[in-house]
Every structure is written in structure tokens, then in C-alpha cells.
Write a structure and sequence with these properties.
2 domains; about 70% helix
């Protein structure tokens, strides 16, 4: 891998995101009844595009020394992410969307990315709040409440 691999991969991700946004605009984005079929793919394309641009610019401005893909730390991160995604999918119905999302981000922050406990809790809490506001409040999607069902029902959700 070259020293500008982040620049190239970020640019390719950005091009893919543009394609996703273009295709999703052909679907129904939003109407009087709320979100349509194309809203989630469009938002995913916008998000991927922002990540791609950020990665590309960062890689161009500050090239890094190439690392071996199967180095111990990269392999550990890869398996941490894969394992946490599998656990997230398995625990999502039982724990509920909020607790599963919180613990997913907490695990990623603390174990895979090695953030401090404080940063991990703050990031996980804010991400879970954003997840809740997006799906439960804005999009009105019914996701599993799991263990928090009595509390959420008493609050009117």
C-alpha cells in the first residue's frame, strides 16, 4: 500500500457515495406521510461522501507510513469490529435498540480504538441519543425496546 492509499480510497468512497445519492434520488425521499424508500439510502450516501472526502483530504495533507494489513493491531481491530457487529445483531432484539447501540459503541471505543473510559462513555451516550432521535422521534420507526420497555413506555415512547 502506498503512502497516499487513504487519499485514493477516500476519493473512491466519495465517488461511490455520489452514485448512491444519485440512485436514491430516483426513489421517493419524503412526502406528506413522512420518510420514503429513498431517504435512508440518500442519507447513507451523504454520510459516506463526507467520510470519503474527509479521508481523502486528510490522507493528502498528512500521508502516513504504510502498515501491513495483517499486523497484530490491525488484525485485532478488524476482528473486534466484526465480533462487535455480530454481537450487536444478536443482542439487538433482546437488549433493545438503545442498550445494544450504547454497548456496541462503548465496546468499539474502549476495546478497538483504545479511548479513555470518559471519552468512550460520552461518545456512546451521544451516539445513542442521536440514534434514538433519528429513528424514534424523526422517522417514527418502531425498534425493539428490549429491557428498557417499561421505562420507555412510561415516558410515552
Amino acid at each position: 500500500m502506498g503512502k497516499y492509499s487513504d487519499t485514493i480510497s477516500g476519493f473512491l468512497l466519495f465517488l461511490f457515495a455520489l452514485w448512491v445519492c444519485y440512485l436514491s434520488k430516483g426513489l421517493f425521499l419524503w412526502g406528506a406521510d413522512g420518510p420514503g424508500d429513498g431517504l435512508f439510502p440518500f442519507l447513507a450516501g451523504v454520510t459516506l461522501g463526507l467520510f470519503g472526502l474527509t479521508l481523502s483530504v486528510k490522507g493528502f495533507l498528512k500521508p502516513k507510513k504504510p502498515k501491513e494489513l495483517w499486523a497484530d493491531t490491525l488484525a485485532w481491530k478488524l476482528f473486534s469490529y466484526i465480533g462487535s457487529l455480530i454481537a450487536y445483531g444478536l443482542l439487538f432484539p433482546w437488549l433493545g435498540s438503545l442498550l445494544a447501540t450504547f454497548f456496541f459503541f462503548l465496546f468499539i471505543c474502549k476495546v478497538a480504538e483504545k479511548f479513555s473510559w470518559r471519552t468512550s462513555f460520552v461518545f456512546s451516550g451521544l451516539s445513542t441519543c442521536l440514534f434514538f432521535l433519528t429513528f424514534n422521534v424523526l422517522l417514527r420507526v418502531q425498534l425493539p425496546m428490549g429491557l428498557l420497555k417499561p421505562l420507555l413506555i412510561s415516558w410515552g415512547f
